[in-house]
Specification:
Layout (H helix, E strand, L loop, with lengths): L7 H6 L22 E4 L18 E11 L2 H4 L8 E9 H4 L11 E7 L3 E3 L1
Antiparallel strand pairs: 1-2, 1-5, 2-3, 3-4
Length: 120
């Protein structure tokens, strides 16, 4: 395998692991565990990991996970800026209006980069 076969990301992760290779590159996290956030409804071009069904939904930060370039940037080869990633917990009934009342305590968790979140 030639050096050109490896992505920039893979090269810097070698020996450190992913996402540990970006540790300390995003500055302080904007949100904290337990904080209520809303998922922004940003335009997406080509690629995003933000699920459409979460846009506009309100949830709580469950975990502040790691720092890394956002997938939307990395898809275009822009890996020089890292952001924090968060696992956000939603009540299922807040995502799906028809969700059965008998299961009102059911939750769903998914991960977002910081650009998709706003404080409520």
């Amino acid at each position: 395998m030639s050096q050109h076969d490896r992505t920039h990301h893979a090269k810097i992760a070698t020996g450190k692991g992913d996402p540990q290779c970006f540790k300390g590159t995003a500055g302080p996290a904007k949100f904290k565990v337990g904080q209520t956030v809303r998922i922004k409804d940003l335009p997406d071009v080509f690629y995003t990991r933000c699920q459409v069904y979460t846009r506009g939904a309100v949830g709580q930060v469950a975990v502040v996970t790691h720092e890394s370039p956002a997938p939307e940037d990395e898809a275009w080869g822009h890996v020089d800026h890292s952001e924090w990633f968060y696992i956000v917990r939603f009540k299922q009934k807040d995502l799906w209006p028809e969700y059965p009342a008998a299961f009102a305590n059911d939750t769903l968790q998914t991960e977002f980069s910081e650009r998709w979140l706003e404080a409520v």
